């Protein structure tokens, strides 16, 4: 397939190469023609080199899959599917069950989404539909800046600023008024699932809101004008004319944010408490798949221990890939019509 | 309100009900509130970084290596240099491959195989950084030990998809007439791609590279068990090497106030480097010749 592609150079541009040569001929520019002919081999070699760069990308993903599968073989043979639903994580006795990590990853990510979705959509709506044109650029830049802050800086900020705030203000408040739900029980430690959820929420807001913005701007302007002409208020216009048309893309953005939250390591690792337990209360410390890797991988002794950790990495890889692919498809279905780049 | 004076009786025939107006106002307020909350957290992060970090940054911090626990002073010079070193080697792998794959996708890859590569690049972009770390560990560290090279490989893997997609996007913005003009002058295809097309798109491509740079510069997770960290200077490819992000992590997790102070200082330096590169990107991209086409 690749060869065929190389043999007949497709768009853009180069197709009319021969035609150009014919056009030039009558003017007797012999050396130009000669040069075109002699560039056949350099052109081929160049396209091969570029192709090999592209193949590198395929090879890298292949390498990731291969190494993860190879590394987790030992653990897979030792415990099979049991690995995923057992909750004992006891390296001393070579007992490895990944359930507490899967639980921690899922709960912290969902909590983050619950906080982030309304905020991110609010930000996107404000920037694209409500704010004065002059503020649009700076506000968009500010939210994107949030995406550029590295995980470790979120981590240090969360563990020195956010955690004490939670411990002294938010958690006692939640325990007092919402303790009956059972979600906010136990000593307010500051560190734990709630802190992880909040910091993750701050980290995924820019992703969700930038995709929501992109999708909202791809909704045709006539749509807005039509709804307004029917006498709708601005909010009714946004709700029925814009958000409803963009919902598949917004869902895609949300799922892309989920993908980021699932794989996020340092910030979560520094505030979640790192205890392999499953607790109902959001105040309780937990553990996630990414943070157990960060914490235990470099000091893991014993082949089975190491293999179990690699298997967690494999599981994390598979989950994030599925989530990301799903999100990509959703975003594509919405934005496909507007910018006609990428897919020819 | 000026609006009411503008509306004649014909238009005001069906006044908007109180409930609908209230909903409109509430929704506007909620959206503005969301923006405020997000800006507040952004502000809180930056204010604390500056407030906590600025005091610990002095000449020693920038020129000395870490002191043992208990001794005051010392700095992160080796970690700052280590980050630059690791990033440099990562770019040596990542930038050419990324640009090459981008050229392939834009100039040759308008078919099914190109779609597969495009899709794979997006998949690679979504791989959690810690998983990339494991793979770099399995390929480079096992049997050879922790090394700067291993850290660079991990970061290069993370840079490639970003650079590839940015390069492709920018090359596709270059009008076909530019290419045809070059062919018309008898310039060969490879020469056109490198000296005309890529050159035209260069500001956009540089933007992509800088963004990839900013993205991996603060990465910690993939370095934990590849570059590993080091309290001394190291310029050897096959030895453990300090990195700013690793040093911040180690210091932040320690029980010592002095080290906490230095962790904040390190974090401030890291964010200044990243924000500076992103602002530079905006400046370049804002002046770029392809801005109008975007």
Describe this structure in words.
The complex is a heterodimer of chains A (344) and B (294). Helix content of chain A is 73%, strand content 1%. Chain A has 15 helices and 2 strands. In chain A, helix 7 (133-148) packs across helix 9 (193-217), helix 9 (193-217) runs antiparallel to helix 12 (247-263) and helix 10 crosses helix 11. The longest helix of chain A has 40 residues, at 40-79. Chain A is flat. Residues 1-34 and 338-344 of chain A have low confidence and may be disordered. The longest helix of chain B is centred in the first third of the chain and has 36 residues, at 18-53. Chain B is mainly α and 294 residues long. Chains A and B meet through helix 1, helix 2, helix 3, helix 4 and helix 6 of A and helix 2, helix 4, helix 5, helix 6 and helix 7 of B.
Q: Can you give keywords for this protein?
A:
heterodimer; A: 344 residues; mainly alpha; 15 helices; 73% helix; flat; B: 294 residues; 12 helices; disordered C terminus
């Amino acid at each position: 397939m690749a060869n065929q592609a190389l043999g007949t150079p497709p768009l853009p541009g180069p197709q009319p190469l021969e035609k150009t040569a014919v056009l030039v001929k009558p003017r007797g520019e012999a050396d130009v023609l000669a040069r075109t002919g002699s560039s056949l081999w350099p052109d081929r070699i160049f396209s091969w080199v570029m192709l090999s760069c592209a193949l590198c990308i395929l090879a890298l993903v292949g390498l990731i899959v291969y190494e993860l599968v190879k590394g987790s073989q030992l653990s897979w043979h030792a415990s099979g599917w049991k690995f995923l639903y057992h909750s004992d994580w006891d390296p001393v006795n070579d007992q490895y069950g990944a359930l507490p990590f899967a639980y921690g990853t899922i709960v912290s990510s969902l909590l983050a989404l619950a906080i982030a979705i309304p905020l991110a959509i609010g930000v996107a709506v404000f920037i694209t539909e409500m704010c004065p044109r002059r503020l649009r650029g700076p506000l968009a830049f500010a939210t994107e800046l949030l995406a550029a802050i590295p995980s470790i800086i979120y981590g240090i900020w969360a563990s020195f600023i956010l955690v004490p705030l939670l411990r002294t203000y938010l958690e006692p408040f939640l325990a007092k008024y919402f303790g009956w739900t059972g979600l906010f029980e136990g000593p307010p430690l500051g560190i734990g699932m709630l802190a992880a959820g909040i910091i993750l929420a701050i980290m995924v807001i820019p992703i969700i809101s930038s995709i929501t913005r992109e999708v909202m701007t791809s909704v045709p302007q006539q749509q807005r004008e039509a709804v307004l002409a029917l006498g709708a208020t601005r909010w009714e216009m946004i709700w029925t004319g814009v958000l409803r048309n963009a919902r598949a893309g917004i869902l895609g953005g949300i799922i892309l944010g989920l993908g980021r939250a699932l794989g996020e390591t340092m910030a979560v690792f520094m505030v979640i408490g790192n205890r392999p337990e499953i607790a109902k209360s959001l105040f309780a410390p937990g553990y996630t798949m990414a943070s157990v890797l960060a914490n235990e991988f470099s000091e893991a002794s014993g082949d089975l221990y190491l293999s179990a950790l690699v298997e967690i990495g494999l599981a994390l890889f598979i989950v994030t890939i599925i989530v990301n692919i799903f999100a990509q498809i959703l975003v594509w279905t919405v934005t496909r019509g507007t910018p006609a780049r990428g897919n020819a | 309100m000026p609006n009411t004076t503008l509306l004649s009786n014909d238009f005001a025939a069906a006044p908007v009900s109180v409930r609908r107006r209230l909903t409109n106002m509430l929704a506007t307020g909620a959206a503005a509130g969301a923006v405020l909350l997000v800006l507040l957290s952004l502000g809180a992060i930056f204010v604390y970084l500056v407030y906590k970090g600025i005091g610990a940054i002095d000449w020693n911090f920038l020129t000395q290596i870490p002191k043992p626990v208990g001794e005051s002073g010392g700095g992160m010079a080796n970690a700052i240099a280590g980050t630059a070193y690791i990033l440099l080697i990562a770019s040596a792998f990542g930038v050419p491959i990324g640009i090459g794959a981008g050229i392939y996708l834009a100039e040759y890859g308008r078919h099914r195989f190109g779609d597969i590569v495009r899709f794979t690049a997006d998949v690679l972009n979504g791989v959690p950084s810690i998983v990339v770390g494991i793979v770099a560990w399995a390929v480079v560290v096992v049997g050879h030990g922790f090394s700067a090279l291993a850290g660079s490989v991990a970061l290069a893997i993370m840079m490639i998809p970003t650079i590839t997609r940015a390069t492709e996007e920018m090359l596709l913005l270059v009008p076909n007439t530019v290419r045809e003009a070059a062919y018309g002058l008898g310039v060969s295809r490879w020469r056109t791609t490198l000296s005309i097309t890529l050159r035209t798109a260069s500001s956009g491509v540089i933007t992509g590279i800088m963004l990839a740079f900013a993205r991996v510069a603060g990465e910690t997770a993939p370095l934990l068990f590849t570059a590993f960290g080091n309290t001394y200077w190291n310029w050897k490819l096959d030895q453990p090497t300090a990195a700013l992000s690793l040093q911040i992590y180690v210091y932040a997790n320690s029980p010592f106030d002095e080290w906490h102070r230095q962790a904040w200082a390190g974090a401030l330096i890291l964010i200044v480097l990243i924000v500076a590169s992103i602002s530079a990107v905006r400046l370049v991209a804002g002046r770029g010749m392809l801005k109008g086409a975007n």
